[in-house]
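Example record used in the benchmark description.
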Amino acid sequence: MRLLLVEDSQRLREGLQTGLAGAGFAVDAAADGAAALAFLDAYDYPLTVLDLGLPKVDGMAVLAHLRAGPRPTRVLVLSARDQLTDRVAALDAGADDYLVKPFALDELIARLRALSRRYHGATTPQLAAGNLELDSARRVARCAGRPLNLSPREYALLEILLHGRGRVLSRAMLFERLYGADARASDKVIEVLMSGLRGKLAAAGWDRQIENRRGFGYVLD
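Model output (structure tokens):
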């Protein structure tokens, strides 16, 4: 899942980038509100982590910009403002969650995964297709009851396919969800990633398949 992190503290921003990437998120980072608006106008982010006390453009203004548009981005406000009035104002303005600094990284990750499920319309962390099961809370996948040894990118790709089951997902869209704006690879890397994932699923005895619709993309029925 790709997300935008908006945080003006360089130390915290870089630490969160590392921690969230380790949890399987593709992270773009903005150090101020103006940079955040540029990212949000250029890309479609399922998740945004937003500080409120930002230079150039305040976090509440960024939130208002988001909610004035058509994109269903889930927004988690991450702020040192701990008064009830601050939390109520942010939630009333359209934030989906509010976490006060200081915080535990594990809690932030758990909240983001919950927001990700809400973005996809899922009510539980469990996803399935045939004899394949995926637990997005524990980040584990099983096929025919046996654990699948997937790389973080393969796991993320499989999760996107399961969430989008029945829909054709283009190579460009998959690349945008899996890689940040500073990625040096092209979207052709999706073909390599898909080949590796398919090989592992076939070896594990998966009773379904990921169909390649030439010129359109991939679909998991």
